[in-house]
Write a structure and sequence with these properties.
heterodimer; A: 145 residues; mainly alpha; 6 helices; 1% strand; B: 144 residues; 68% helix
Amino acid sequence: MATITPFLAGLVFGIGLIVSRMADPAKVQGFLDLAGAWDPSLAFVMAGALVVAAPAFAIARRRRVSIMRMPIALPASRDVDRRLVAGSTLFGIGWGLAGFCPAPALVVLGMGNAKAVAFVAAMLAGMAVFEWREQRRAIVGAVAD
Amino acid sequence: MTIDWNAFTPWSALGGGLLIGIGVAMLLLVDGRIAGISGVVGGLLRPRAGDVGWRIAFVAGLVVAPLVAALAGQSMVPHIDASFVIVALAGVAVGIGTRYGAGCTSGHGICGVARLSPRSLVATATFMAAGFATVFIVRHVLGA
């Protein structure tokens, strides 16, 4: 599979985070600080992104393959369960603590920032914990069956 | 609630947001993939044949974005108030949370909300609320 187009997509996405300054944790925390001096900018970032993404998904829904002839796989799951809510809560706590979510952390890592390196390393460790627990769950499930 | 008019940057926020949306649309319509960054990265820890290259390429695009943006005259200095210990704790929470929650600000907040997925609407409301609550506690209760 060609890797130049995903690279360009990541690049445009990353430049968007820089232009909007959403790669700056202080700016993100300024949005999350409703009780302080509130900076509503992040809501405008989301609005700008949705203006383009919503029609793109409307087109994708009517197509089976992408321009590069790759299958378009939209998530099928519709269940709102405890995993979703508990996971999102934990994510929101981490997001608020550092002001980093995954994409901005990778962009700031590209600036050679030591705290972003620490954040990404810790994030990968957290993701590895999830993979390890999921594999264990699958093994235990298979034995139980 | 008081709006910090000095910090508020609606036009660059909207413009940057449009670029983020274009990145999402490119990956979706050209490559058939969802630009949910936690999912893109998390999938690398569960490597499958033919499913690795595009993930690394997308992440590489994010990482070199500051370099390319600087060439185009766009630069930004990040301010990270949290200590290394807090940053690391936050990283672990984001890593575990986004995988159990099946998405982050991009996957749920942009891609999922764009297609009005009920799961993503709930997830986005949940991590926003948790983020608001966390910053409230850190800044106004603990007074850090």
